[in-house]
Design brief:
The complex is a heterodimer of chains A (about 160) and B (about 290).
Chain A (H helix, E strand, L loop, with lengths): L2 E5 L2 E5 L8 H8 L18 E4 L2 E4 L12 E3 L12 H9 L8 H15 L4 H7 L11 H17 L1
Parallel strand pairs in A: 1-5
Antiparallel strand pairs in A: 1-2, 3-4, 3-5
Helix pairs in contact in A: 2-5
Chain B lengths: L1 E3 L4 H10 L4 E3 L5 H6 L7 E4 L9 E4 L2 E5 L4 H8 L4 H8 L4 H6 L2 H7 L6 H7 L3 E6 L2 E6 L4 E3 L2 E2 L6 E7 L6 E6 L10 E8 L4 E7 L6 E2 L1 H13 L2 H4 L5 H13 L11 H27 L3
Parallel strand pairs in B: 1-3, 2-3
Antiparallel strand pairs in B: 4-5, 5-10, 6-7, 6-10, 8-9, 11-12, 12-13, 13-14
Classes of the chains: A alpha+beta (about 160), B alpha+beta (about 290).
């Protein structure tokens, strides 16, 4: 089937999509957007977190056809032309990236958290990121990165 | 595989009538896992996310009519005050990403014994509204679950909504698993105290072939509260009553040993969760009378 949706503000159209395919597969294998990672394929790890009509979701659990006509936002859409997004820069500066596999999902989830709450408490951060697994960092550096990003984004407001 | 995307409820019912083997998909949190892992290869996927009616909730005759497609996230933010037990259950589900997609209707349709919404719905005497081209009917949720992942629905039917009456008393929910987020329950328990009709709703999940009520526990507690005049006095609940209630809830289960836990652990956990949930609910009931 043919799928048309808007990804990071640009309309994308792909053909020969299998009806049982996930949005994640479409993004990675058909649209050339491999930022969202494919790990568990069952919504457990959060590595494929993308925005769907403004809400963070696991792209692996969205049937491709369900994205027809919808707005999709991926990690590739966060950075500006010249600079990383403050959330991305904070992850770099805080050392919150090790192997990097979970990072794209964490960036989208963190972007959503700070956009919604401004300066989240640690408890809010833990709750908001509970669906994003990282097996390297032990999460402490990720919490540092969230605080740093929230401070910098708050200062920009 | 075919992918049908009805935009109205009438079209959805026609599609299900024409293709009774079609697999409905809403949030995809169950269906897509099955497809991704090759366990599920439906001839036809029936996407219900374009049916706007399913995403609505309204109040009908004092009860909330919760459209089958309302996400758990919306149950929490929009209905946390009116449906506290269901909202508590919703907060335990998955992660923010899962709660943004998963729906109460989908939980019912899957009818897993471990589905998190079920104990809350059972304790609150919810009623499931199902429909087909033949018409609609209401199934008390106590009669809805007929076996492991089986329900009282016919092949041509879809879930339209679930009706839940806002409570006259406190509700509680408890779930145990290996961590707070992203777990399939090892055991779960839902409680509703109904001071207006002096009854109790108590239900368990993940500890029997279906989610189920614990009638002996419900009758015991309602009887004790009546006999001691506690509905009126709101005096302290005897510890022995809470403990016996927990034992009777555990006795209503028929759990199995599996990868998530043993039958013995589930029975023990249920007795503890039921006792604690009752203690929390009773504290809420007493605080309420003090205007807190």
């Amino acid at each position: 089937m043919r799928l048309t949706c808007t990804v990071n503000g640009t309309e994308q159209q792909v053909d020969d999509v299998w009806e049982g395919e996930s949005l994640l597969y479409v993004l990675r294998e058909r649209m050339g957007l491999p930022g969202s990672k494919n790990a568990c394929e069952q919504g457990e790890c959060g590595s494929c977190t993308v925005y769907l009509d403004g809400l963070p979701v696991c792209a692996c659990l969205v049937a491709a056809g369900q994205a027809e006509g919808r707005q999709v936002g991926t990690v590739e859409g966060l950075a500006g032309a010249d600079a990383l997004h403050p959330v991305q820069q904070a992850f770099v500066d805080a050392g919150a990236v090790q192997c990097g596999f979970c990072t794209p999902g964490l960036l989208v989830a963190t972007h959503d958290l700070i956009t919604r709450t401004g300066r989240p408490s640690d408890a809010e951060t833990r709750e908001a990121l509970a669906g994003n697994l990282c097996r390297c960092t032990g999460y402490e550096k990720i919490l540092d990165a969230v605080r740093l990003a929230a401070d910098r984004m708050g200062a920009d407001r | 595989m075919e992918f049908l995307q009805p935009s109205t409820w009438a079209e959805a019912l026609e599609a299900k009538a024409a293709h009774p083997d079609a697999v409905p998909i809403a949030g995809g949190t169950d269906v897509m896992v099955g497809i991704n892992f090759g366990h599920l290869r439906p001839a036809l996927l029936l996407d219900l996310t374009r049916v706007a009616d399913l995403r609505e909730w309204t109040t009908v005759a004092g009860a909330v009519r919760l459209g089958a497609g309302v996400s758990y996230a919306r149950v929490i933010t929009e209905l946390g005050d009116r449906l506290p037990g269901l909202a508590m259950a919703a907060r335990t589900i998955g992660s923010p990403q899962i709660r943004n997609r998963g729906t109460v209707g989908g939980n019912l349709a899957t009818a897993s014994p471990a589905g998190d919404a079920h104990p809350a719905l059972l304790a609150a005497d919810a009623v499931v509204e199902v429909a087909s081209v033949r018409g609609s009917r209401r199934i008390p949720v106590t009669d809805f679950y007929t076996g492991v992942k089986r329900s009282a629905m016919d092949a041509d039917e879809l879930i339209a909504a679930v009706h839940v009456t806002p409570p006259s008393g406190p509700q509680q929910y408890s779930k145990i698993g290996t961590r707070n987020a992203m777990v399939i329950a090892v055991a779960a328990f839902g409680l509703a105290l109904h001071p207006d009709r002096r009854t109790v709703g108590a239900a368990l999940g993940s500890a029997a072939p279906t989610p189920r009520r614990a009638p002996a526990a419900e009758e015991f507690l309602a009887g004790e509260l009546d006999a001691a005049g506690l509905w009126e006095s709101r005096a302290e609940l005897p510890a022995a009553t809470a403990r016996r209630f927990g034992e009777l809830v555990a006795a209503a289960s028929s759990p199995i040993d599996d990868v998530r836990g043993t039958a013995a652990y589930r029975r023990h956990a249920l007795s503890v969760m039921a006792r604690r949930a009752l203690t929390w609910a009773w504290t809420d009931y007493r605080d309420e009378s003090r205007g807190n």
